Amino acid sequence: MIAYLGPPGTFTEEAARKFAKDLGRDDVEFRPVSTITEVFSQVERGNAEFGIVPWENSLEGSVGETLDNFLRKDVKVFGELVLPIVHALMVGEEERDVVYSHPHAYEQARDILRDVLGDHEFVPTSSTAEAAKKAAKEGGYALGPPRLAERFDLDVVEEIRLENNETRFAVLSTRDRAPTREDKTSVVFSVTDRPGALREVLGIFADRGINLTKIESRPAKSGLGDYVFFLDFEGHRMLYPGSEALSELRERTPFSKVLGSYPKEFP
Fold this sequence. Notes:
Layout: E1 2-5, H1 11-23, E2 30-33, H2 36-44, E3 50-57, E4 61-62, H3 64-72, E5 76-91, E6 98-101, H4 103-117, E7 121-124, H5 128-138, E8 141-144, H6 147-151, E9 155-173, E10 183-190, H7 197-206, E11 212-219, E12 227-234, H8 242-252, E13 255-263
Parallel strand pairs: 1-2, 1-3, 6-7, 6-8
Antiparallel strand pairs: 3-4, 3-9, 5-8, 5-9, 10-12, 10-13, 11-12
């Protein structure tokens, strides 16, 4: 069972099906759920072997609900998938100056939509699939994956390909991954509230020649000014020098959690 952020027809479903194909599983059952939190819960409770959630978009940044659940839920990152994002501007039978879309998709394509349509009303929806459904039922335009056009009998007005528009999806599981020698590790941690604390933590990795591929802060939601830091580094948590760095990280920070070690490229 693979749970994913639904409904069917979204980019997350595309990522889920790609994951199953890469895994060599043609008999897997897919379960769309309504929220990212529920995907995490399905995996944590053992109702799904894997879960697929959006993690980060190259244009819009990280998905806050995904980061928050990494803090709260007892799941691991089993892998990641990076998909290029191609939007289709689709129209129903009745052309109205309204565009239905998930806000993230709309923000990515907003300038192009203004060039194509001119002035229009934007109506946010919970998903790109819901946008297509509304356009088919109520008229107007929808923005989302091109395959939604066939599903909802819409006409594609234009495909929108933005340079470097990619989304990173997290593959969730309760299982660990063995080292492959070409891995990356994701962690989250907090630091003490004093000058130079974050620089000292980053020095743990720099002193060992470990390459950091990403770091970002996120409100800890425990009080104004309290933050946690999400960090990705090259290497596996079980192998030196990453294992040694994580040991020191635990000793020198009030809180740290390894989200998972997984191959740089799946499978």
